[in-house]
Specification:
alpha/beta; Rossmann fold; 3-stranded antiparallel sheet; binds zinc ion
């Protein structure tokens, strides 16, 4: 069966150089391992996603010369997510958490990435009688069982052994890394961790290529996918990031320079590709590069 990878940006802003580097790794991996590429627009966060950014993602990728074989919009998958949640609930693997953000901060230790390690305060509670519907405003007051709550997954206390195609072997226990994590948040939105697991399974993704900043999500995603019934996880590759002059990773929130701004300023795709290769340390000069050349260079670094 032919393999499949995905490029999965969130439409919460315009694509920037960091996304372009990620795209280069995805398409280079597709070339190297003969994979099809799926474009998944991860708009599970409906509060921050914008339709103009969805259109811009497609346009910017096409302008750069990337081609993909299939495409999906995560907001079209809410039925799929609901069904997966029901399956997990039927196995008694989900519970509501009523902790406020303040309580979570104050009552739980943190891991080396600054994430809380949830100690299971609300575990053992039963599911609410009336569920807050997806994306609706949660009701406040009333019966405690109807109060705003997230839904957490009961994650098993066991070590997940996984292999990164670039970084080697990892042995991590999600229970110790983050504890039972939310699969739906307090306002009824599906979390990144949950949505990505459902979609990687449903879309038959065999290779997950993404930035090193998400590496610590891998063990918990493998654990969650096991609970969802996928025993053979995808292969993973986490690539290095472009950092800004202050040594921090580029972020849309910090208004990183966007591909859109470069296009409007008259920068060519070749110039942009050359610049990204240089900034990522994959080329010694900023010489313009066409897409095939750029992919060859990244391929040699896989
Ligand atoms: Zn709680």
């Amino acid at each position: 069966m032919p393999g499949k990878t995905r490029f999965a940006p969130s439409p919460t802003g315009y694509l920037h150089e960091g996304h372009l580097l990620s795209a280069l790794f995805v398409w280079a991996a597709a070339t190297k391992w003969d994979l099809s590429v799926h474009l998944r627009i991860e708009d599970h966060d409906q509060e921050r996603s914008r339709s103009e950014h969805i259109a811009a993602i497609r346009e910017d990728l096409q302008w750069l010369g990337f081609k993909w074989q299939s495409e999906s919009l995560q907001s079209d998958h809410f039925d799929r997510f609901e069904k997966s949640l029901k399956n997990l609930e039927a196995q008694n693997l989900v519970y509501p958490c009523y902790c406020s953000r303040k309580e979570l901060e104050e009552q739980n230790p943190k891991n080396e990435f600054g994430e809380i390690i949830y100690q299971g305060k609300c575990k053992g509670g039963s599911l609410p009688l009336v569920r807050t519907a997806s994306l609706s405003t949660p009701s406040s007051g009333g019966s405690p069982r109807n109060a705003p709550h997230s839904l957490r997954i009961k994650i098993p206390d066991k070590v997940i052994n996984w292999h990164d195609l670039r970084l080697g072997d990892f042995a991590e226990n999600p229970k110790l890394q983050c504890g039972d994590f939310p699969i739906r948040d307090r306002i009824g939105q599906w979390t990144y961790q949950f949505a990505v697991c459902v979609d990687d399974i449903e879309e038959g993704i065999t290779h997950v290529i993404r930035g090193e900043d998400i590496r610590n999500s891998t063990a918990r995603q493998i654990a969650l996918m096991e609970l969802m019934g996928r025993t053979e996880p995808p292969k993973y590759l986490h690539h290095p990031l472009i950092v800004d002059t202050a040594g921090k990773k580029l972020s849309k929130r910090e208004k990183a320079h966007s591909i859109r701004q470069d296009r409007e300023a008259g920068v060519t795709p070749q110039e942009l590709l050359g610049r990204v290769l240089f900034k990522a340390g994959l080329a010694s000069t900023q010489a313009p590069a066409d897409l095939d050349t750029a992919l060859d260079i990244v391929c040699r670094n896989l």
